[in-house]
Amino acid sequence: MHYQHLRFEIADGIGTVTLDRPDKLNALTYDTYRDFEHLTREESRDPNLKVLVVRGAGAAFCAGGDVELIIGDLLQRDARDHLLFTKLTCDLVRNLREMPQPVISQVRGVAAGAGAVIALASDLRYLGKSARFSFLFTKVGLTGADMGAAWLLPRVVGMGRASEILLLGDTIDADECHRIGLANKVVADEDLNDLVMKTARKIAAGPAAALQTTKRMLQREMDMDFTSAMDAEMMGQALLLMSEDHREFHAAWTAKRPPVWRGR
Question: pTM for the whole thing?
Answer without folding.
Answer: 0.95
